[in-house]
Structures are given as C-alpha cells and as structure tokens.
Q: What sequence folds into this?
C-alpha cells in the first residue's frame, strides 16, 4: 500500500491516515466541519495536510467529550491567543462540564434504579418482581 501524498489525498487516503472510516469524513463534510481543498480532473475530492490536521483535531476534541457543535465553535476560534482561551473557549468548556455533570447525576439515578431492580430480581421466588413492576407501569401508561 502506498503512503498518501499529504498534498493531495483522496477521501479514502485521508480516512486511512486519520484512522477513521470514509463515512466519518463524509459526515464531517455534511456538517461543514471539513472540506476538500480541491477536486481532481475526474471530480474526486482531494485533501491536503491541513484537512488531515483538522480531522485529527475534530477526533481529539470528540474523544475528550466535546460535541460536534462545540468542535465547530472551537474551529471557528482557531487561534492561540490567551484572552480568547479565557473567554470563548472557557465558556464552551463550562457548558460542556455542566452538561456532563447533569448526565452523571442522571446516570447515578439510573444506576440506583438498576441496582435496586437487580436486588429484587435476585431475591424473587418464582414470579419475577421486576417484570411484574415493568408490566404494571406499562399498563398504567396505556390507561392514562
């Protein structure tokens, strides 16, 4: 397999260089996070080194918990200025942290419910208390 020429990679070469499926590259294009730098004579999308770096940035940001809308905002800010980091980037981080804390609270509740259900399940003799409870909730919702 030949190594890609970083000046003009096809979509499959870019995807391979970034260790992502080509569908991911196409998805980021539809989301307007990544664009080809040019097209070949046959109309194939071509990407340069900047596209690879941008794709790697997107994946790195997602891997630490940023949503694509956050990534889009971060890409729009591309700069190394300290005041910018202390304002706009910090704002994005605060928002993501608050959402993560809310999800953690929700997950703790789910964990408590599942633990209690598992305890009931293990202690039930004959009839499954968990299935009975879930069935009665389903019937209650239908009658409302």
A:
């Amino acid at each position: 397999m030949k190594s890609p020429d970083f000046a003009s990679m096809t979509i499959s070469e870019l995807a391979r260089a970034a260790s992502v499926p080509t569908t991911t590259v196409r998805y980021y294009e539809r989301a307007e996070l990544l664009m080809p730098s040019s097209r070949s004579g046959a109309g194939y999308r071509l990407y340069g080194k900047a596209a690879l770096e941008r794709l790697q940035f997107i994946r790195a940001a997602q891997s630490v918990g940023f949503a694509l809308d956050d990534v889009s905002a971060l890409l729009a800010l591309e700069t190394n200025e300290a005041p910018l980091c202390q304002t706009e980037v910090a704002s994005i981080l605060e928002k993501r942290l608050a959402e993560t804390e809310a999800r953690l609270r929700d997950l703790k509740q789910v964990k408590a419910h599942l633990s209690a259900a598992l305890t009931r399940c293990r202690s039930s003799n004959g009839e499954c208390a968990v299935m009975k409870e879930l069935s009665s909730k389903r019937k209650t919702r239908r009658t409302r």
